[in-house]
Each structure stands twice: as C-alpha cells, then as structure tokens.
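Quick start: load a record and inspect it. Here is Extracellular solute-binding protein:
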Amino acid sequence: MPTFMRRGTVAAAAALLTAFAAACAPGSSDDKPESKAPAAVSTDVAKAGNVTLTVWDQEVQGGQKKQIEELNKRFQAKYPNVKINRVSRSFSDLQKTLRLALSGSNPPDVVEANQGYASMAQFVKAGMLLPLDSYDQAYGWKKRYPKGLTDLNSVTDGGKLIGQGKLYGVSLNGEIVGLFYNKEKLAKLGIQPPKTWDEFEQALAAAKGKNEIPIAFGNVEKLPAMQLYGIVQDGVNNKEAVRNLVFGSGGSWTDGPNVQAAQRLADWAKKGYFTKDANSIKWDDTPVNFAKGDGVFLFGGTWWAPDLADKMKDKVGFMVPPAPQAGAPTATMGGESLPWSITSKSKNPDVAAAYINFITSPEAMDVSVETGNLPALAASKQPDQPLQKEITAAWGELSKNDGITPYIDYATPTFTDAFGGPLQELIAGRKSADEVMKAAQDDYDAFQKKK
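Running the structure step on this input writes:
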C-alpha cells in the first residue's frame, strides 16, 4: 500500500489524541505505581538460551490466523532457541479472561491488550503491563511508526489518560469498519452499491421485499451493536463532534444527532432488517453466516476480509459506509489492530520485545498483505485479491478525507455494558432511543467525574 494512503489516518489519530490530551488533565491518584521499564535490555535473543515464550492472541479467523502462524514460524526459524506457546481465543473470550491471567502467578509473556480505558488503561493502572520505552530505544518503533499510531497505544502513569504517556504496545494491522455486500444478491435485486444513506435505506427495503435478510447481524457480545451504532452515528453527526465526545472534550450522547443514530437502529430492527434473533447470534458467526448466503449487507471490520474473500471469492465487495448525501465525504471508525504488549511479570521480557519487533517489522507488513490483511504501515507488496484492493482503496479514501473516527467503546471502562446492553434492548424493541442514549450519558458522566 502506498505511503500516502495512511497519512490522513495517522494525522487524524494524532489530532484526535492531541485534542483529547489538551481537554483533560491528570488528577491526584492513589493508584498502584505502574511497572517500570528495565534499565538495561538485550536484543541478542540467542544469548537468552532455551526459552518458551507464551503468547496470547485473538488471531483466530482465517487470514489473521494464517498471518500469525506464518510469523511465528519465521520467528522460530530465525531463533531456534525459542519455542512459542501460542494460546488463541476469540476477541470476546480474550477480553473476558485476560485480566485474570495477568493477575495470576504465571501470566503469559506477550498479549494483545485492546486500546482504550476499558482494557489497556486498566491494565496499566494495575501494573500488569510493561512500559516499552527502553525497548523502543533499542528497536526504534517510534521512528518506524507515525506518532498518531504510537499514541493510540500509549497511556499516562496510573492509566489516567490514553493517547499520551508511555508506550505499552505495537500494532501490526490497520483497521476500518465498513460495508461488505453480496454482489450476486445485489445484482439479482437490480440495485447498485448504495452511495448515500437514502439509497441504502431503499436497498434494505428492496431486500426485505424479496425475502432476503437485509443486514447480517449477530450481537451476543453487545460490542457489535456499538460498532454498528458508531457507523450510523458517523453518518448523521460531524466527525469532530464524535471524536470530541469519545475523548471527553465536549458534547453529550443525548445530543440530537446521536439520538437520531439510535432511532435509525430501532427503525431497522422494527422493519425486520436484521438477522432474526440477532442478540442471540455470536459476533464471529456473523461473517460465517453471511458467506453462506445469509444477508445482502454486512457491517464489519477489515479483519473479516480474508475469510470472506476465501469463502465468497468475487461475490463479496467492500465499501466505506454511505455518505450523508451524494458527493459528500464519508467517515467511519477505525485505526489499528490490537497492540502486542509485554506483561509486567514476564520471565523473558527481552525475548518478548524481540518477538514484538519481528511481528511488526517491514517483513511482517508484507506477510500481512500476503495473507489478505491490511498492514498498519506501508508494505513493499501490493494486494492481488479484488476484495483487498477495494479495502486498500477505501483506506486511501478515508485517509485522504481525514475520515477515521475512534471506536466508541474507548469512551469509558464500562461503556460496552453500559451502552451495549441498552442497545441490545433497543434492537429487541424494549427500550427507546432516548432511554438508550440517556444510559450512555449516565455512564459517561460518572466516568468523567472520576478522572
């Protein structure tokens, strides 16, 4: 992917985080002191002797799995004294079990710790992750990555603020959440990929009228509804307003456009546009069902692309979400993949750092392209799959227009439950849009007061 394709995204991330940092100031704290980076580090993996490195990841889907398996294979070939003990879990399962693992007496060495207040900031506050500053001096990650991306994986002392402070992780892939569509089904319906939200609404009605599932959707974990809400929110609200809201520098979740986004989800649910009983379907089952023919459209992240391309071939397409009106720029959430972090109790932090350096190297970016993923940094290889070419074009479009907004679950440590739970009830028809957004604001206010 050409370098210019990521500049806007990086600039957007940097601008978001700078604005957030300026809006907030650390307060006094009695938090547990954060873990300290080692004063001296070694980059000579061979001198470490025989090492078993335990790595926890969420790279369980086809393309992601192929990517990490290939990188692990190459790392072990380069350093035959290291054996990788890989433990893989789905994103949701990893989030549920990681804190317990990190607080135990025998935690993994390397983990994928999600960005935001709910995960990385909490782990930093509890002293569970190792600051990577000393290793950055040895490997030069901040020189390799633009500031906007390293900032996303940075946290201040005590977990007070995200987007600044010490570096706690390095990411391999880029991410955007967009709209997958079944080209064959659209052709049978006689409609083109929608360019505006009005056209999208018309396409949903047409699909429902032909007894198709308009939107493939599974929402057991609550987070899927939050991502879908965020995409719709980006379509009805100003991107700067969304950024300010997520990062705590202005606005309210009960503002008109935000309530309007929730109402759109409620209307879609009432009209039967979602998969039946969506709240009982797992998130990871959604692309599987879509590939089997359940659904005309699928809102989802680029992490699903390798599997969909493998199963659907040229029948699947990808586009940025529709624009508010024809010709207008669009925005959607995204950034970079879960960062690789070193646990504070790792018995082999030097080897862990060498591993992270290897799996985020220029060679790794090429492997990302080869396995159908979207690398965080420019790769020397270009994608050859049609779907991946569309995703690369979408990444470029969003970057050019500064159209990347943050994941809204960053907003508070408890937002997935506090907002995701009411969104489930909204989709089930048990809560109104106003009630759901009030619940979001109540949680948001409570967190802002604690900071």
